[in-house]
Amino acid sequence: MTPSTDAGGSLERSPGAVPILELKGVSKRFGAVQALHEVNFDVREGEVTALVGDNGAGKSVTIKCIAGIYPIDDGEIRFEGKPVTISGPKDSSALGIEIVYQDLALADNLDVVQNMYLGREEITPLHALDETRMEQRCSETLASLSVTTIRSVRQTVAGLSGGQRQSIAVAKAVMWNSRVVILDEPTAALGVAQTRQVLDLVRRLADNGLAVMLVSHNLHDIFEVADRITVLRLGQDVARFNTKETTQRDVVEAITAGTLSVVPGQEEAHA
Amino acid sequence: MSTVAAPPPAPAAAAPTATIGAYAKRWAENVRGGELGSLPIIVGLIVIAVVFQVQNDKFLTAGNFVNLMVQGAAFALVAMGIVFVLLLGEIDLSVGYVSGVAGVITALLLLPDGSQVATPIAIIAALGSGVIIGTLHGVIITKVGIPSFVVTLAGLLAWNGVVLLLIGTRGTVVLQDNFVIGFANDFVPAGTAWVLMLLAVVAYAGVQIWGLRKRAAAGLSNDPLLIVALRIAALLLVLAFVVWVVNEDRGLPYVAVLVGVLLVFWTYVLRRTRFGRHVYAVGGNAEAARRAGINVDRIRIACFAICSLMAAVGGIVLASRLRSVDTNAGGGSILLYSIAAAVIGGTSLFGGRGHIKAALLGALVIASIDNGLGLLGLSSGTKFVVTGLVLLLAVAVDSISRRGREQSGRA
């Protein structure tokens, strides 16, 4: 990460006023395919912001641009109001952005503590793993997120239900002083009760002051937890809503027929 | 696993020390769920001991027990290295001839032809060659992207060639260094063996009690005291029995001490260090490991280096037992018996599951079968058929317990 403004810039930060993470006119092109076209999007602390759209709308590309997996072609990404260059997953996690991908990236043969600390294990002065401390902190983190359905943190992840696994992946993401958590389809593979668990957890994250970005297909879930909704269609942001002031019908309309500023395949803009 | 298990009313207020009943229940649950641990192998060892004792009453004698230790030691040592690559879900087919190369290097460097070197230097050179060979395998596998099966198969041929080239026209090189020969042919004095045994038990008890106190201080749940006490008592009984039996005969072979020390060392590396944790992670889900910032290639290369290093240790021990090396060094059954030992001991071929102690338990089974069938005067043909069937059985147990895990949602 290399902040491109001088470090002596304005330091005042009124929470909520400046979005913690902001995409301004971000474009991404793969050869002839315009995957993202001047997308504007922002995430605020203490809020759940949903990014919705049909398949191929550019949701995953947006996540990967924020993660630094794809470099952006145009536009800028701002963190706390300052433009930043994210050129790899290390940069995004250094900023405090954590992404929970759909496949969760948990090692089934390891237990909950081992998974949550994977790659960041704490060691004693003798270079042995500090299991006691890790187990203690894991339990604390899970308790603070009210994840109570896990019988033992020494259970292997393989034995957990889908909802529990999702909870562990989220807890793993927020344990490291992260400020923005991006969840990719967190409820896609879950049953009703487990979806409930995960949505409650998502809400608690925002209530704890984190900025949560929720990427999902499922409008029902989104209307339950999201504060604001941004709709992507064919790589463009076509609408944004406050959840309280809109209906699922309006959102569906935007997803399927939102007004595009540029029609793909055509040179000039259409109204 | 239930999907939405009702949360226990007050998890934080639960007693920090689980009850014996709960412990037994959890264990039974794990076994039913396919987490068999060392259970099949211990059952297997008992069956083997009974069958052979019935057939030939020399099987369970002190003298034969010492033979068995010396015969199984090389397999156990090589198998410890194999465990590392199996944990990654990889394989190393070259360990046989890598052990041969190390044995030949040791013997040649110690050959009193005017240019011999000091014993430690010869051993370090042999072990170093193992590390270099393993690193080479690992680099080719990770950086060029060739499957380990192919790379180490090429290694099997190439290192066999190197053994032949090193031996040249000599045919057989007789090992003429008393220290190296002593590994497999000298015995710890009876009194010293008892002292070593007591030290091992005291150290184990110390670690256990220290761990209990540390967890209790941190307010974490502990295994019941009785279970911990039983574990310590079990180790004391087993080790005391072993020392008592071997002292009835020639005594404890030095190589058994070497196996014990390396067993503890590699167990520590695998279970208690960051490196070991990352080995399990790479074997369980390489993509998750990569995303967690683990250098997956470096872990792979290190495991292949450890594998070849342990093959070299095994090669030196084998040379010591035979008191010579010849053009067959590293050939024969060493490769297949070592891999079989790791697998029979309970290391999963699918990666991510297994312990170093699997190498020891598996080697014990393999050496018992080999030794027992030998006592019955059966040909090596029969030995290989029986060993093959046992290996198949062990892999079948692995696969079936894996299915058990899948059905109980643990795979």
Task: Describe the structure concisely.
The complex is a heterodimer of chains A (271) and B (411). Chain A is of the alpha/beta class.
Features:
heterodimer; A: 271 residues; alpha/beta; six-stranded mixed beta sheet; four-stranded antiparallel beta sheet; 30% helix; globular; disordered N terminus; B: 411 residues; mainly alpha; two-stranded antiparallel ribbon
Helix content of chain A: 25-40%
Order of helix and strand elements from N to C terminus of chain A: EEEHEEHEHHHEHEHEEH
- Strand order across the biggest sheet of chain B? 1-4
User: How would you classify the helix and strand content of chain B by structural class?
Assistant: mainly alpha
Q: Can you give a write-up of this model?
A:
The complex is a heterodimer of chains A (271) and B (411). Helix content of chain A is 30%, strand content 23%. Chain A is of the alpha/beta class and 271 residues long. In chain A, strand 4 and strand 5 form a beta hairpin. The longest helix of chain A is centred in the C-terminal third of the chain and has 16 residues, at 192-207. With 411 residues, chain B is mostly helical. The longest helix of chain B is centred in the middle third of the chain and has 28 residues, at 190-217. The A-B interface holds A 89-90, 103, 105-110, 114-115, 118-121, 123, 127-129, 132-133, 135-136, 139, 143, 148-149, 151-152, 156, 158-163, 191, 193-194, 197 and B 1-5, 7-8, 11-12, 33, 214-215, 218-221, 268, 272-274, 277-278, 280-281, 283-285, 287-289, 291-294, 352-353, 405, 408-411.
